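Quick one:
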Amino acid sequence: MSILFGILLSLLVFSVIVFFHELGHFMAARRAWVKVEEFGIGIPPKAMEIGKDKKGTLYTLNWFPIWGFVKLKGEDELSAKAEDSFAHKGYFAKSSILLAGVTMNFILAWVIFLGLFWSITNPNGVAPIAINTKFATETKSLLVPTYEQAKTIGIIETDGILLDPIEGSPAASAGILKDDIIQEINGKSVKYSTDLLSALESSPNELVFKITRNKETKIISVKPKDGKIGAYIGDNITNIRDNFTYSYGFFTAAQVAGEEVWWQSKLTFELLANLVRKLVSPNTPTERTEATKSLSGPIGIGNVFVNMVEKEVPISIIFAIAALISINLGVFNLLPFPALDGGRFAFLSIHTILSWVSRGKYGTNWIENKANLIGFALLMLASIFIAYQDIVRIIYK
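Output:
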């Protein structure tokens, strides 16, 4: 039963996110007085027609509910005489229509984050989804903080630095043992690894360590060699606050929600860039394989929702995941790849510049049409490949 509910939940989340994305295009087209011929949820073939409104827009449901589309009058034409066609409009009207979908994705994520962070709509507050220990980044996040950020804001509590000396090193020779905890160096408290590095820089000749070993305090002098003591270091984690949550007043929540949308968008761009680098120019032979295996699509994300339902995670986490998916969809559609909103916007900008330079003599969009067709085909092939990987992972997990 939980598997069925998880699948239905994932379809609902995808449908809502796609609906708001297409609603952005729809509303922008209506504002620009462009006729919307069809508003469809899902990828054709058509499953059913819901009906037409007074302005002639046909609303449809299609068989593959993981995407959607808005069909505009004159969308594939270079120019048109009809004033209510997309081709008839100017650069800024077209741009607003093309970019309205991703804008709506970010707005939807902001609204969800606002509801999660605001104490009135979510009295219990929202907990971090996870701590990022895998991807190195300086980008902040409240919902997916880095390890260092988690320490700073109090999710992870530490006391001193754990040592693991290398055999034959100055630390080992001085009597430092594995899992010794540094409390002080030269009389100064040590909480972070940066405190140890600062002590090495300020006192390179001899360090007096106050350590804790099996709840006993010991004083050990260490003479660094070439500015190093020869030991692996790590935080002595004393507590991870599982009940840690964020909760703010309205105006603070609105600001924090906006910052989280920005941070998550930036982090998504970083992850995409890192993924492309690993696929195109991996540093090691295994990087490309690892990057390929990390790809996941709607089926993989749907499986995540199934697992969340089985584990009975808080509803706030499900909403947070939905907001992150909305941001990911927005960022992905911004990429200047044919058939995506970002690609179409790029072609529109290039066409406008060439038309201006040639004083209107540049008048063919067959390259754009072919590129969008090829781009769509490549996206479909990639989707099939990723779906295959997701299914294999689920079956053989």
